[in-house]
Specification:
The complex is a heterodimer of chains A (774) and B (403). Chain A is of the alpha/beta class and 774 residues long. Chain A is built from 33 helices and 18 strands. In chain A, strand 1 and strand 2 form a beta hairpin. The longest helix of chain A has 23 residues. Chain A is globular and about 90 Å long. By secondary structure, chain B is α+β, with helices and mostly antiparallel strands. Helix content of chain B is 37%, strand content 19%. Chain B has 15 helices and twelve strands. In chain B, strands 1, 2, 3, 4, 5, 8, 9, 10, 11 and 12 form a ten-stranded mixed beta sheet that branches. In chain B, strand 6 and strand 7 form a beta hairpin. In chain B, helix 3 packs across helix 15 and helix 6 crosses helix 13. The two termini of chain B are 18 Å apart. Classes of the chains: A alpha/beta (774), B alpha+beta (403). At the A-B interface, helix 9, helix 10 and helix 20 of A face helix 5 and helix 10 of B.
């Protein structure tokens, strides 16, 4: 056995310790599942074994399935689906059911089984615990969380989670864990009855062993004949309204866009009506169903695999090594600067927060104090930790304090002269290796870099508002920005645990450019006589977090007016008239600025808001009768954005479809079920996408004209993830390769066309990879 | 094709569908049995000539489960040859039973049938029979299922009926029902319900509130806000089907929706020949009938479409009908029907309806059919169209004419 150790004590209690070699975290790979199956068979047969305790040899218990490996399974099955779908589905089911079968065999091995959950247990890890007859959790490991995050990446808990958890908690209490990925602390787990008891780590295994000894006849409650489904099974007076309501609650959130959410409900419902063995087969079928849907594959790719790769610095230029950012200078303590200071301090970075005067700087720091005070009050952190974060920020008006920072984030007003002045002042003080980042959202980085005496160290670090909530940071390359500066900016963003994407210098960069198309399409429809409610609801049904009119209200209409008049002035005759221009002018003229003054496209009344009744006036030819089908609205908003993203790919503004996808999801909330704006095009298929875009372009205008790159791809049906295959162009540093398992290094080598096996020396294989990359 | 004739119709008074309702003490079996007995006795009916007893029931479980029609037929001492079948087309079940019976007669396969319905809502609450339609996410999640109250409010929102419109309609329903009782318009059909000792326990519709006015209705809170907006939020489901609406106006409440009541009804239907052979006088002829499905989320607009369909079948126009009877499930259902077909309020639900007297789900269709037979005779009119909105987006209707 490679992944488990088995240690039978004098009382006949088998201690099974999950401890995969060479990995920091236990995951349920194919190899692990096979070995677990063998192990359970052995435990069942061995008469000397009187009971079982399952624990982990790592600080965490188990992080769940190996999603990367699972991605490989999709691919094989997808191929067979084309020729023999029934065989493909059977094959997939057999594969998927193995894990359920192994856990069920453990649960029904005829001996008492207790889990000693010493740390984090997610997904399959938590489900392994649920398949045990009792669960003991460590009371003194703050990192211990129990959760089922599968739905967040478009999957369902497919190792009994949709069956066992609701049989413990009932549908209503299980739903937030199953569907929203809510995690339980050790304390929650005990109070809700998910765990038997919480004890200190040192006593964990002994406590579990004692329970096994005390309960020689233990079996799962659902295997007892008198078992009653908590909260009521579907067809009971108590359960019926719960099950009936659950469909509505989930549809409200999902708009029917997330197949995982629907399948979780279906699996829970259908499973609740049959005994556990049948229930697990039903669950595995619904799991397989998800694997066969593009939404799940796209969500796993973008929200898990790509996100992980990007957060580890996939965009780091070749030859640059990762480094640490210990201290940053934030210049400008307004709303953005205060937010940047806060997230930096929270990430353990020393911050010098500079403003024109001490009062301004203090005001910026106050944001961190307020946020942390709130968290202490809500019991989310301790005063000590909060103080540590607050004390990391030095608020000052003295530029001299910036002398030993690793990186600057300039966040002053959008004024080129002011920024130039600050650049010069700052560069007088900071060290030669320090990188100067500007948080501008509108001014080209290359223009700002003209004020710099070392433009190679000048870069854009574009945060989104509110900084502490928005995950995306655009790293903007100016003409002269060096690979070193990019690498340092990546170091910084990675340390903030945000998602960095590297973008070329262009008006609006990436995210703002695309989101403008979204808002404009809202204006176009309003002008063409689509009912405002249909625009807003249609956009949300398409998967957007808020409607375009609502978003414009948040951004503020007076700001839109200023940007519009400035752009008109800048471009002169080259300015393209938009259908939204007269709307913006009229709204601005009527002092309807948006949420900030309580009136915009919506009327605001405390926490309530409703569409302004007089928006019909903007329909140039009156309201359309009949109104278009909502599918038309959904296509318009999604295509307008995706086509703009395609343009940025075609123009080389963005280089990697993963960055475009993550930028779209984390920058402006582009329909996450699609996997992002570029994955959306791949999901539709480039040929079908272009065909539809051409129809939209003919009906509604040039915003739907696709770039020639995409049109060329459509000719052959080539997809973005084929043309710009990220796996093919990853580069690996020596240190990264050395940290990997040998078999993974061999896989990478093989993918690059290098002949290598695990029998070769790992060192040699690494050298070959580095040589090939160079 | 043979004609199907209505020879007689009886119904129970409607008891409040609660624990303190007069009929709560009477079993569903007894309610229905008493109607079958009355129908037989007042017509001196040779029940060996009855081919089938077809009864509508929406929650056919517990005391009204296991084919209550057959049980009541035997229990009423009908000839054992009179079979029995229980059917469910939700709120139109009672009318559907009549239509199915008529179809049997018209096809010549049956000569005499007893049709009707039963619902003891106080004993078998709505939803007692469960149902994939509400509980199974394969259906409910995929097909935008919302409860009828939210659908009724959706109709009001979409077609522009205010709370005042609905309340005014309800006040009129109460007024008409009270007047009808005062004038004895229902006396031909009403068969008082006896208790276990054979003593009359209820002889009038006890759900009515004759003094109802705009002011008293104004004090009632909308009934469907909680489930619409809060838990579980059915409005958001309905709006995904009707995204051109920003929100749903919740205008319905206990006072302008149909009452929950207990009751049963039965109608004697047969061929001309069998009627003559048994010495029965035909009171009306069934001219046409039908059923239809429509959009299931708004659910309750089916009457509009089935009226069009069945009028066409009968070769008639909207104005050829003297009296319309549309079950008052919710005020907006009737208001929308009148709006869609431009029907004067003076021609529809002339004796009040379920808002005043209650809606014993499976029985209502047969009851209001009987009401129309009586009213055509009383007011000396010729034709009536009876219709009901139905769960799942359906509608059913029957056109009758006096003979």
């Amino acid at each position: 056995m490679e992944h488990f150790t088995l240690d039978i004590d004098v009382d006949g209690i088998a201690l099974v310790t999950f401890d995969s070699p060479g990995r920091s975290m236990n995951v349920l790979s194919d190899a692990v599942v096979t070995e677990l199956g063998e192990l359970v068979a052995k435990i069942t047969e061995d008469e000397a074994v009187k009971g079982v305790v399952v624990t982990s040899g790592k600080s965490a218990f188990c992080a769940g399935a190996d999603l990367e490996e699972m991605g490989g399974h999709f691919a094989g099955v997808q191929k067979l689906m084309k020729t023999d779908p029934e065989a493909a589905k059977k094959q997939l089911f057999e594969k998927v059911f193995t894990l359920n079968a192994a856990f069920r065999a453990l649960e029904t091995c005829g001996k008492p089984v207790a889990a000693a959950i010493n740390g984090l247990a997610l997904g399959g890890g938590f489900e392994l615990g649920l398949a045990c007859h009792a669960r003991f959790v460590a009371s003194d490991n703050p990192k211990l969380k129990l959760g089922l995050p599968e739905a967040l990446v478009g999957l369902l808990p497919g190792a009994g989670g949709t069956q066992r958890l609701p049989r413990i908690l009932g549908l209503m209490n299980a739903a937030p864990i199953l569907i929203q990925g809510k995690q339980l602390t050790a304390k929650d787990a005990v109070s809700q009855g998910v765990a038997t008891a919480a004890v200190p780590q040192v006593e964990l295994v002994d406590t579990a062993k004692q329970w096994v000894k005390d309960n020689p006849k233990a079996k799962a409650p659902w295997d007892a004949p008198k078992f009653r489904y908590p909260g009521g099974a579907p067809y009971t007076a108590q359960g019926l309204p719960m099950f009936a309501g659950s469909s509505a609650m989930v549809r409200k959130e999902s708009f029917g866009n997330y197949p995982a959410m629907g399948n979780i409900l279906k699996s829970v419902y259908e499973g609740a009506l049959v005994p556990m063995d049948a229930a697990l087969r039903i669950e595995s079928r619904y799991f397989c169903d998800l694997l066969l849907r593009p939404e799940s594959a796209n969500m796993v790719r973008s929200l898990f695999l790509s996100k992980q790769a990007i957060e580890k610095g996939a965009a780091r230029p070749a030859g640059q090594e990762p480094g640490d950012i210990k201290k940053v200078g934030v210049i400008g303590a307004g709303f953005m600067g205060a937010g940047v200071a806060y997230v930096s301090a929270r990430a353990g970075i020393e911050v010098v927060l500079v403003d024109r005067d001490q009062e301004g700087a203090d005001k910026g720091k106050q944001f961190t104090i307020d946020e942390q005070t709130k968290r202490v009050k809500r019991g989310k952190t301790t005063q000590e930790k909060a103080d540590a974060i607050i004390n990391r920020i030095e608020a000052t008006a003295d530029y001299a304090k910036l002398k030993d920072v690793d990186l600057i984030v300039e966040a002053v007003f959008e004024n080129s002269e002011l920024k130039a002045k600050i650049t010069k002042m700052t560069e007088e003080i900071i060290g030669d290796t320090a990188v100067f980042g500007s948080n501008t959202s509108t001014i080209p980085i290359s223009d700002l870099a003209k004020a710099s005496k070392r433009p190679e160290n000048f870069i854009g670090v574009h945060f989104f508002s509110p900084v502490h909530k928005m995950m995306l940071v655009e790293i903007i390359k100016g003409e002269k920005t060096s690979d070193y500066a990019i690498s340092r900016a990546l170091d910084y963003v990675i340390k903030l645990r945000k998602v960095p994407i590297v973008v070329e210098d262009t008006r609006g960069f990436y995210a703002n450019r695309c989101v403008m198309r979204y808002i404009q399409e809202g204006y176009n429809m309003l002008s063409e006589g689509v009912k405002p409610a249909l625009i807003e609801n249609g956009a949300k049904m398409a998967g957007m977090p808020v409607g375009p009119l609502s978003l414009q209200d948040e951004v503020a209409i007076d700001l839109a007016y200023k940007v519009m008049t400035q752009t008109k002035a800048d471009l002169g005759d080259a300015y393209p008239e938009n259908k939204g221009d007269p709307i913006i002018e009229a709204m601005y003229g009527a002092e309807r600025y948006g949420r900030k003054n309580g009136k915009g496209f919506y009327v605001y009344n405390g926490r309530e808001k409703h569409l302004w009744e007089e928006l019909g006036q903007f329909a140039v030819d009156g309201l359309q009768e009949p109104q278009p089908d909502v599918s038309e609205i959904k296509d318009r908003v999604l295509y307008a954005q995706a086509i703009e993203a395609a343009r940025t790919m075609a123009e080389g503004i963005i280089h990697d479809p993963r960055e475009a996808d993550l930028g779209s999801i984390f920058g402006w909330g582009f329909a996450p079920f699609t996997g992002g704006a570029i994955s959306f095009i791949d999901m539709v298929g480039t040929a079908a996408f272009v065909k539809r875009a051409d129809e939209l372009s003919k009906a509604y205008g040039v915003q739907f004209e696709v770039p020639s790159q995409l049109r060329d791809m459509a000719e052959t049906g080539e997809l973005y993830y084929q043309k710009f295959n990220p796996a093919a162009k990853s580069t690996y540093t020596k240190s990264a390769l050395n940290k990997m398992l040998e078999k993974d290094v061999v896989k990478i080598a093989n993918a690059m066309g290098i002949s290598a096996t695990v029998d070769d020396l790992k060192k040699d294989t690494v050298e070959k990879i580095l040589a090939k990359q160079a | 094709m043979a004609d199907a004739y209505i020879f007689d119709a009886v119904r129970t008074p409607r008891g409040k569908g609660k624990k303190n309702g007069s009929l709560h003490e009477i079993t569903a079996l007894s309610l229905l049995t008493q109607q079958l007995e009355a129908l037989r006795d007042r017509n001196d009916l040779d029940t060996s000539k009855v081919d089938d007893v077809i009864m509508g029931c929406v929650s056919p479980v517990a005391g009204q489960g296991a084919d209550i029609a057959r049980a009541a037929s035997i229990h009423a001492n009908y000839n054992e040859k009179a079979a029995g079948v229980t059917i469910n087309r939700f709120c139109a079940s009672g009318l559907e039973a009549v239509n199915m019976g008529a179809a049997k007669v018209m096809s010549g396969m049956s000569d005499m049938v007893v049709c009707g319905g039963i619902e003891s809502m106080s004993r078998v609450p709505m939803g007692s029979d469960g149902g994939a339609m509400v509980a199974d996410p394969n259906f409910a999640y995929e097909h935008y299922v919302v409860p009828q109250g939210v659908s009724a409010d959706l109709i009001a929102t979409r077609h522009g009926f205010t709370r005042d419109d609905c309340d005014a309609y309800a006040v009129e329903s109460q007024k008409r029902a009270a007047k009808s009782w005062e004038e004895g318009r229902f006396k031909k059909s009403i068969v008082p319900v006896k208790d276990q000792l054979g003593v009359t326990i209820l002889d009038h519709d006890e759900h009515m509130r004759p003094g109802t006015d705009m002011q008293s209705l104004g004090s009632l809170n909308p009934a469907f806000i909680q489930q619409g907006l809060m838990m579980p939020g059915f409005d958001y489901v309905a709006l995904q089907k009707y995204p051109e609406l920003e929100k749903i106006n919740h205008v319905h409440h206990a006072g302008n929706s149909s009452g929950i009541v207990d009751g049963a009804g039965a109608v004697l239907i047969g061929s001309k020949e069998m009627g003559e052979a048994l010495g029965l006088k035909a009171r009306a002829r069934i001219k046409a009938f039908g059923e239809i499905g429509s959009e299931p989320t708004i659910m309750l607009t089916g009457p509009e479409y089935i009226a069009t369909k069945v009028l066409k079948k009968a070769g008639m126009e909207v104005n050829d009908i003297d009296l319309y009877e549309l079950n008052e499930a919710f005020a907006s259902v009737v208001l929308r029907f009148m709006q869609a077909h431009n029907i004067d309020h003076g021609k529809i639900n002339v004796n009040g309806g379920a808002i005043a007297m209650g809606h014993p789900l499976g029985a209502t269709g047969a009851m209001i059919l009987g009401t129309m037979v009586d009213e055509l005779e009383r007011s000396d009119k010729e034709t009536s169209l009876i219709t009901l909105c139905v769960g799942g987006g359906m509608g059913a209707a029957t056109i009758i004419e006096r003979v």
